[in-house]
Amino acid sequence: MRVTGRVRGTWLHRVAFALLAFGLGSCSSPSPPREIPPAPIVLAGAEHLVPMLRGEIQAFRDRDSAAAEIRAIPNGSAEGMEQLVNGEVTMSVLMRELTDPEVKAAMARQGLNAFPFAWDAVAVIVNPRSPIRQLSRTELAQIYRGEITDWADLGWRQGGEIIPLTTGPKLGLYEFLQQSLLGGDPYGARIYAQKGEPEIRDLVASRQDAIGCVSRQFVDERVRALAVSTAKGLPYVPLTRETTMLRRYPLMRGLSLCTQSRPPATATDFINFVTSVDGQQIVSRHGYTPVIPVRVVRTAEEAQ
Q: Which of 272, 216, 265, 224 is nearest to 95 (CA)?
């Protein structure tokens, strides 16, 4: 019995100690809740747009460091829009009009918002050894339809067969040319698709019978950008900083930031910044044309 009493006393002592410890623990201050950082914003855009997009992101983050992280990833227009509709990215840069399948897919999901923020000039380039210096949009369309196939039809008797170049169908340039030049009609049978716009430039630089269209950003001393008219008989407009800033150049494609119908707050704030005066200055610094009106002021030397 004594042993039993000792055991019972020890057990009661342990229970009392446990209850005391529990009571002391319950009186302590609760730990503050952990702050969960907002999910990062993923922005898909063409590879040559990424430097401009990163410049916008950096300036936006400098203003609002508490906003969610924004990451820019390179992608083609078609692939980026597919990812946006499927919820795999938060925003996507569209470099052309939406296609009917994209509109239907968006309507079947949550819808889409598109916010224009810049213009990109599309250069028509030839080899510097080519005597061709200007083309109309009408003639360019005939080349890409396959209706004009020889340089002789454009005044270059020794030019031979025309080698017209475009990109693969998942890139924005492919759809832009098909929409703006061909009215949605298919390309001609002898159009050579390249991996991307740098490859178009490189091939034109190496072949005097080739012609291609690329973003103004890819034009360098190895190729010549042609002056372009809206139609036959109308004045030809050279590709210059002034003609693109004033949107007089006939081949301009709009750039839009696209989101689903209910984007996160950070995405909305970022779009508001990009379309603000400060954001549009970044657009201009990277060689693109802002969507807000601009005025070109010439120096006295330029005016002469």
A: 216
Buried b / exposed e across 7-33, counting CB within 10 Å, b at 16+? eeeeeeeeeeeeeeeeeeeeeeeeeee
**Confidence bin at 86 (pLDDT 50/70/90):** confident
How far apart, in whole angstroms, are the C-alpha atoms of residue 223 and residue 205? 5
- Check if the beta carbon of residue 52 is closer than 8 Å to that of residue 286: yes
DSSP 291-304: SS-------HHHH-
Whole-prediction pTM: 0.80
DSSP codes of every residue in 177-192: HHHHTTTTPPPPTT-E
pLDDT digits over 41-77, tens only?
Answer: 999 988 889 999 999 999 999 998 888 999 999 987 7
Show Cβ contacts of residue 200 under 8 Å, excluding neighbours closer than 6 positions: 125, 165, 166, 167, 194, 212, 213, 214, 218
Domain ranges in the chain are 41-119+253-290, 121-245
108-109-113-119 Cα dihedral, nearest 10 degrees: -70
Contact status, residue 296 vs residue 245, Cβ threshold 8 Å: yes
pLDDT tens profile 197-248: 999 999 999 999 999 999 999 999 999 999 999 999 999 999 999 999 999 9
Per-residue pLDDT at 10 = 40
Beta-bridge partners for 116 = 256
Number of H helices, E strands in the chain: 11, 12
240/169 Cα distance (integer angstroms): 28
Nearest to 71 by CA among 92, 85, 86: 92
Q: How far is CA 242 from CA 138, 226, 287, 304, in A?
A: 23, 15, 11, 16
CATH class of 121-245: alpha beta
Query: What CATH topology corresponds to 41-119+253-290?
Result: D-Maltodextrin-Binding Protein; domain 2 (3.40.190)
265 pLDDT exceeds 70? yes
